[in-house]
User: Fold this.
Amino acid sequence: MSYEQAITFIAQPGGCLTGQIRVPGDKSISHRSIMLGSLSEGTMIISGFLQGEDSLATLKAFRSMGVQITGPDEKGQVTIHGVGMHGLKKPEKALDLGNSGTSMRLLTGLLSSQGFDVTLSGDHSLSSRPMKRVTDPVIQMGANINSDEKGTAPLIIHSDTSTQLAGIDYTLPMASAQVKSCVLLAGLYAQGETCVTEPAPTRDHTERMLQGLGYQLEVTRLDEQRSKICLQGDGKLTACDIDVPSDISSAAFFMVGACIAEGSDISLNHVGINPTRTGIINILRQMGADITLSNEKEVGGEPVADIRIRYAQLNGIHIPEDQVPLAIDEFPAISIAAACARGQTILTGAEELRVKESDRIQAMIDGLQILGIDCEGTEDGMIINGGEFGSGTVDSLGDHRIAMSFAMAALTAKGDITIKDCANVNTSFPDFISLAQSTGLKVSS
Ligand code: S3P
Assistant:
């Protein structure tokens, strides 16, 4: 085990969350701003860029493909001198994408026909995550990609000047914004039209940013759940500046902390409230949470608001399945809320949680049980009976969201919660410890 993997959080019991904070920039939007800014004509200034390891891995990848990128400076500002759709250069080495699934999955599409070979690699967790979901459709479009037998990374993309992708009409087998984005980004370079049908709404930052940079895109709502997104290949992107809102997925830990700890009253400023991301608000409200939004506005094509959360007794619910893709990264935090709620909370239709940075169903159930909560994992979700947290040592399995969720649990615990393997909190929330301390959480590393 390296020194970094050995980071342990200790969260002491009690306290509540108060004050006004701004959590770091949105991870999904930060990734996309680097990718699409690099392919644009002109200069893009990104403010509020997330300086986490995941989005920095994307930034480094584009630098090593010849894009001139300055920053991030102390304010998180990044400047990209776009090279246009066909200006990327072959990197000298494999692109190391660390822990970042979004980097690997989106780059699989974006880099599949650049006219040079490129290898995408990642850490132990990323190398065990399913990649066939992205390589399959892109290979169908004409790409040449090798992976290991299980279809996992490293992914070796072969492309030369004769590589020409063909448009595809692809129906996603699962509700995944990463797969949708991968196919659309490959479609930018394909002959003719590329369409993706999604079985349920998933985050639409790629579509919004493409449109914001002047790329034509057609979105057709097929029914309550399904949409079809189509674009033509061979267009161009024109740079404009991007203001990255705070990440609702990082805000989620504080939302849950304030919901469970008596006396809490916290405001989270300038948070992205894109309706494809607000499952956490909808689910907590349905459980009885006291959440108010103010100062709602649109910034660079994305809605933002200040979110105020005050303590309120929560009740268990059966989480509506249509909320699952809209809160897909928030279930570690939601399971902490469920453990503090009156009655039972049931999650179904969430089998995707088993293939995130860790198996998040197993990781949360194991930790909750260690802390004395009566709960069980199911194939596609969990059943959690509200109770009281004791104390103990839980393993985050190197998953940033598991680590931060258990830190919040300490607010209502009887004793210390020790959380192992927390280095990857830096992938999405580098200043978590100090920001959390400033709001009243007694956590240290
Ligand atoms: C992301 C999409 C989601 C999410 C991930 C970020 C994105 O993954 O879990 O953290 O930026 O497109 P899936 O597409 O696998 O659901």
Q: What stands out?
A: Residues 9-25+245-444 form a domain with the UDP-n-acetylglucosamine1-carboxyvinyl-transferase; Chain fold (CATH 3.65.10.10). The chain has two domains: 9-25+245-444, 27-243.
